[in-house]
What we know:
By secondary structure, this protein is an alpha+beta fold. About 30% of the residues lie in helices and about 15% in strands. The protein has a 7-stranded antiparallel beta sheet, sandwiched between helices. A hairpin with a 4-residue loop joins strand 36 and strand 37 (about 1285-1290). Helix 2 crosses helix 17 (about 315-415), helix 8 (about 170-180) packs across helix 17 (about 315-415) and helix 9 (about 200-210) crosses helix 10. Pfam families: Beach, DUF1088, NBCH_WD40, PH_BEACH. GO terms for molecular function: protein kinase binding.
Amino acid sequence: ILFKLISIIIETPAAFPDTVKEKEAPTPGEDIHLESSIPHTDSGIGEEQVANILNGAELETSTGPDAMSELLSTLSNEVKKSQESLTENPSEILKSAPSISSISQTKGINVKEILKSLVAAPVEIAECGPEPVPYPDPALKREAQAILPMQFHSFDRSVVVPVKKPPPGSLAVTTVGATAAGSGLPTGSTSNIFAATGATPKSMINTTGAVDSGSSSSSSSSSFVNGATSKNLPAVQTVAPMPEDSAENMSITAKLERALEKVAPLLREIFVDFAPFLSRTLLGSHGQELLIEGLVCMKSSTSVVELVMLLCSQEWQNSIQKNAGLAFIELINEGRLLCHAMKDHIVRVANEAEFILNRQRAEDVHKHAEFESQCAQYAADRREEEKMCDHLISAAKHRDHVTANQLKQKILNILTNKHGAWGAVSHSQLHDFWRLDYWEDDLRRRRRFVRNAFGSTHAEALLKAAIEYGTEEDVVKSKKTFRSQAIVNQNAETELMLEGDDDAVSLLQEKEIDNLAGPVVLSTPAQLIAPVVVAKGTLSITTTEIYFEVDEDDPAFKKIDTKVLAYTEGLHGKWMFSEIRAVFSRRYLLQNTALEVFMANRTSVMFNFPDQATVKKVVYSLPRVGVGTSYGLPQARRISLATPRQLYKSSNMTQRWQRREISNFEYLMFLNTIAGRTYNDLNQYPVFPWVLTNYESEELDLTLPGNFRDLSKPIGALNPKRAVFYAERYETWEDDQSPPYHYNTHYSTATSTLSWLVRIEPFTTFFLNANDGKFDHPNRTFSSVARSWRTSQRDTSDVKELIPEFYYLPEMFVNSNGYNLGVREDEVVVNDVDLPPWAKKPEDFVRINRMALESEFVSCQLHQWIDLVFGYKQRGPEAVRALNVFHYLTYEGSVNLDSITDPVLREIPEAYFIRDPHTFLLTKDFIKAMEAQIQNFGQTPSQLLIEPHPPRSSAMHLCFLPQSPLMFKDQMQQDVIMVLKFPSNSPVTHVAANTLPHLTIPAVVTVTCSRLFAVNRWHNTVGLRGAPGYSLDQAHHLPIEMDPLIANNSGVNKRQITDLVDQSIQINAHCFVVTADNRYILICGFWDKSFRVYSTETGKLTQIVFGHWDVVTCLARSESYIGGDCYIVSGSRDATLLLWYWSGRHHIIGDNPNSSDYPAPRAVLTGHDHEVVCVSVCAELGLVISGAKEGPCLVHTITGDLLRALEGPENCLFPRLISVSSEGHCIIYYERGRFSNFSINGKLLAQMEINDSTRAILLSSDGQNLVTGGDNGVVEVWQACDFKQLYIYPGCDAGIRAMDLSHDQRTLITGMASGSIVAFNIDFNRWHYEHQNRY
């Protein structure tokens, strides 16, 4: 009965673990009534095994009789409770435990009966199997059917553990293995775990032995699954019974042998292993111990009868009765734990399986989605690529169309010009229109005017009426409506590290492009920023080029006036990487999202991008040029991305300015450039100071301090009365929506820039476009310099500073296109700008204004103006103290347009939108309004420094530095330094002084009439003559040392050019050119119509250049750049000129050393009717000026366009010498001693006539002074602008044939007709007005 009770106890938690959680399982007790006999099903474990396991468990857990009795009483109470619940509510039990079909009520049953039932025929076993109890509630059945398979369906393999010598605590493990295999418990049969021997042997082996565990597990699991899911929930399937006849004939021993055949060895092994324990617990009938030997001997026995006898013996019964209590309690607890553990295990494994399956399903879904997205991405990429190809093709078509139009116009100009093949004076247009070209010189001045095909007098333009201008209060009111945002704090920026090079980062890695399909490295939406035009489009970068293609379908683009677009370059742009010279980060609308790219053709183009990340990608896709070579910064991409403040700190320009190596103008231009000022955005146009205050007197004395402005104050604070007004406005500020400011207008706005430049195209068109096609009211038009100065001192809404053009562009003051600008109230017609009385013509005004800018008064104060505009007084408390605070929307960092997403917090200014109170909350509109405000206010430059700017060193401190441009010294030297006589008496017809110290051979190269050249070594000590410590005893104090090969008469063959020249050529200075490194001489005049290149080291011919149809008569070289590259121009009797490119790297004409035999000219310049006799080329201005034997002089661009003829006075017909300075002076010497000075734009500025027959002319590097020499042997110095004579040197005994200046402009070397050279001391500073007045 104990066995049966235990079987019930163990089954109960497994059968309904969820429903009976709080109740303990029933324990053995006297009053339990069992209703029917217990069927035998395969539980997979033998009785002996269990008994031994129980006894093994007791070893660990028995704690003495007290504990045992206590536990027993607890158990009996629990059993009573559970029995009551059984009798009270049998249906509940049935519901919760459908697996319990019947419970036997057998009182006092003994072991013999159990054995009888064990060895009973298997047929009986099959017959007495219980019928499954149907579910009383169909819903419950459905629920059970739904729950059970779901809970366990993934648990498809059982854990079978071999049970050899199980340790005492391993009951849970073993039973999990066993019961999992025969897991019929939940499916409706009440199996008895101790009735194992009633099952067929095969099933026992399957479940307990490790031999056949694979098949057992699969069969049991399948039976479980089938059983669980079938409609009637049958019991676990059993093995087919033995045939009846063999069962009948067997003896009981045989039957026992047969039944226990397979399990007996296991039982024996258990008895032997546990012999010491069993010998103590199995007591004889009189309490005596059994001998160990009796148990051990069972190992060798083969009969099961001994086993059965032992199990049926009185000792076994006694032992069980004695030890059962604790062992049963242990067993019950173990069973309960086992059931819970097994259930948890099954659930966990099921969940894990479900998780794995779900994960696999999710992976499948994910892979499928990934595949689909990759397909879609691939298709999109292909579409994008096709679109890009279409875009590039259409862009190329547009570009070709634009280029073709330009070429057509160029050819038309060349042919129909009055000097062209089809031209005649009568054919020339009645009115030639001109526009300012975008070409910049080295100081970023735009001075060149070119023919304007779109020019007109704008006769249709009206004048604005006075009523169209709002009052100042209206303007202020419209500007006050923004609420302020905190202005960005001005921490010192992190230092820019110039060590190392981050540009080694590979292009692709930086841009995160894995595989480049096709040639386009980067393509991004961008805006082309040009004056008054912002054009949306696409910027594409390949490995060698940049393309920009405007989006012509953009509604904003369609609205732009075609007249404005005609002046906008780059709408269908293409730029080669090889042409890029500098890349600067720029701001647009106060956002750091733009780039400005400077090209080799001296123009620039500006783009705005969606964000800073794109800017970085673009910079890393472009060549590594930095910000160019001018500012002493490395050519690295990080320099292009550096902030203005970092550029300022890292550059050497401030030190150079302090040492007076560069002019005030050049330094201000540098500050403007790095602070983000650009010609491409009129709101950020470069800003220059007013420097003079006297615009009234007849003569201007630049030595009087009273004529100069106080540069330590902003323009608004110069007038004390007006300064008080501004200070009060700031102190009595009441508007909560905006921070206080002194000025409601700015010193630099698009409007003011256009009003200054309204007389020259393309600014006239821009002005009319911005003002609805109307010129300003005549009273408001810029019509007088003096009036503009007065207004800027009196009007409370005018604090304009100047633009750089005031210091170099006289054409801006002339109404050359004849615009109708109206009549002022005082009945004066507005035409050219009224100049101060001290300036007789615009060129005088610009020249004197520039002299004032470079004067000592300005040099001493300029750093204070820099503090106001670019420095520490630009913002913060210092700006308040200096009366220098402008509207907050003019400052960098005051607003981030990207961050404006919440329109509720802000209002759109009334001035820009008429709005309904319910519909005005439009973010885009708000941003547009904000942009309009920023455009309106002007923009303050980026702040370059947050400490005071250092002052410029005084000119006196620097007077002994040899390189300084301003050295006011006493004239201690003699005029003539030295005379060097060559052995040959042949006249020296060409002198080239390439004396820069960094050259391998600083030298003066001379060439005689007989084509004998000499490379005379130059010694730079002459620069220090007169300096402290100077001594005549030092070795080389004559600056020129004669070429030893000529002096010794030893290597004359290395110095003689023997090739024959054409007999009709007169050898003069124009026949030779020496390269900047002194290593090559170019000579023309050969009979085969070529010019030739010779090495000065060996005298050997290195290149012959053909191109002309007749003898080449003159050569000229431009100034050379880094690397020694320069332009060479050849003029010929065929009346044309060819422009060539000299490669300093390959030392040949042309770019490609492989095609050096047949180099191609860069341009063919036509227009002359006669032999070309003189030519000069200036690379900085991009101009070639040439003179024909019988006139005239023509001006061409280096791209081949004929700009104009320089028409001299009537008697100036036959030009012979030309000299052009980068400052824009063109001096031409005509036959019979006549000189003319032209501006590069063709205006005759001065003329003179002298008696000498001049053979050589020379302009100083600043273009201010002219040096001449001729047959009289006299060197004379003139002021270039008006030919005022400055100095005459003592005459020489022979005529002067050639001249050149040393690099420091301190020594003049002349080639004489007598075959000698003379070196003169020259110091242009001594004729400087400040030197004359002060020193």
